[in-house]
Design goal:
Length: 417
């Protein structure tokens, strides 16, 4: 067996390459003719099957009973990774759900390669968990164990921004100091790298990597921040309570955090939410909240918020319609509202980029280019803030969803040659 795989297991979307000795790695179609797959699993209780990616989301939105799981990568390094959740009345470990998804990626890649795959390079963020090296190592070890459990025997890791740099390097005609900004669904990762055609052939590039940095703020956090400024206000967040103070906010925080939503549907959580009615000056807000919880519409709202974020990321206006909660209920969202909602997150991301450049021993004006990759770099306010912080650098937009996978493929082809 000469084939190998390179997999970008992303928080929001995943991609994969396959290659073989003597042949360069290539992206493979993971769903139909699409080379990316939303990192989503739907346990369809009506049909008693498991769906992945866009099909998973489509079945959930079509109204089938069951459990939709997204942002699986966020579980790595968290306290939930060794916990279980109830699916069709049975306890299922979160680790096993990640295994199912990675096994699906492996089967699809093997179909494209035409042979079993035992060797793989997996991308990993610079930090799975901020400011906690032990949990960060736990996250990588868990991903290694999952990869081995699904049948990979030789598992290697590469930082995702380094992988993106290797993809970008193939376009360069001269040596360049590059700040790679890989901002996806779960993390914002940065690497300062010297790239160029004379360096590209070396397997060991450690001398060209000047610094790495990252922060656990990215697209799913932006979704949460936007939800708190839009959809949750329709359900009462920020409204005055009977005692003159605002109504309790914790439940809205949980309702706008994808992996916490399902816990709000439990009987005990519903009973607790019902007792909050005494805090509301306007009962309609609590009534809307309880309807969302009882009818399990939280994930639907989260999906609509994400769609709205994408729609206004580069400007424009869209309507977030919540008429399934109440006739004519909804809120208009534009790029300015999105920018305000995520401004604190953007500030932390920019500071992390500046800290990474400083750790490389460079000044901001010594960066030649910023290479943007990851789905969240589609947000204009974020790109503009980073470009302003490094005013002399050329802004280069890579493939937001496939640059990391391609770069992992480049690395894998050299590693397994």
């Amino acid at each position: 067996m000469t084939a190998y795989a390179a997999i970008d297991f992303g928080t929001s979307n995943s991609a994969a390459c396959v290659g073989a000795s003597g042949h360069p790695a290539r992206l493979v179609a993971l769903e139909g003719d699409r080379e990316t797959l939303p990192t989503a699993v739907f346990f369809n209780a009506d049909e008693h099957n498991v769906a992945y990616g866009r099909q998973a989301i489509a079945e959930y939105q079509a109204g089938y009973g069951g459990r939709l799981m997204r942002s699986l990568k966020s579980l790595l390094g968290s306290e939930l990774i060794n916990e279980t959740t109830i699916i069709e009345g049975q306890p299922v470990a979160y680790r096993d759900i990640i295994s199912r998804f990675l096994a699906h990626l492996k089967r699809t890649a093997e179909a494209a390669a035409g042979e079993p795959l035992s060797r793989v390079v997996l991308g990993r963020p610079v930090h799975f968990v901020d400011d906690n090296p032990e949990r960060d190592q736990l996250a990588e070890r868990t991903l290694l164990e999952v990869a081995e459990a699904v049948g990979f025997r030789d598992v290697r890791f590469q930082y995702e921004p380094i992988a993106a740099a290797l993809d970008y390097e193939r376009t360069l005609a001269r040596d360049t100091v590059v700040l790679v900004a890989d901002i996806g669904g779960g993390t914002s990762d940065f690497s300062v790298v010297r790239l160029g055609p004379d360096r590209a052939g070396a397997l060991d590039r450690s001398g060209d990597v000047l610094a790495n940095g990252g922060v656990h703020i990215a697209g799913t956090d932006f979704d949460q921040y936007l939800s708190m400024r839009s959809a949750m206000t329709c359900l009462g967040l920020g409204a005055p309570g009977r005692n003159g103070k605002q109504v309790p906010s914790q439940i809205y925080f949980e309702l706008s955090t994808w992996h916490q939503i399902n816990f709000l549907y439990a009987r005990k959580a519903l009973a607790s939410a019902q007792t909050l009615d005494i805090f509301y000056d306007q009962p309609v807000h609590h009534q809307r909240l309880m309807k969302v919880l009882r009818e399990r519409e939280g994930h639907r709202i989260a999906g609509l918020v994400e769609d709205a974020k994408v729609a206004v990321a580069d400007g424009g206006t869209t309507r977030l319609a919540l008429d399934f909660v109440e006739d004519d209920l909804g809120v208009d969202i534009d790029g300015e509202l999105l920018s305000r909602a995520i401004s604190a997150g953007i500030a932390r991301i920019v500071q992390t980029a500046q800290d990474t450049v400083a750790a490389a021993g460079l000044q901001a004006d010594q960066v030649d280019a910023i290479y943007f990759t990851g789905g969240s770099t589609g947000i204009r306010a974020l790109r503009d803030a980073l470009a302003e912080a490094f005013g002399r650098a050329e802004s280069v937009n890579g493939d937001p969803f496939a640059s990391v996978a391609r770069g992992l493929g480049v690395y894998a082809s050299r590693l397994f040659a």
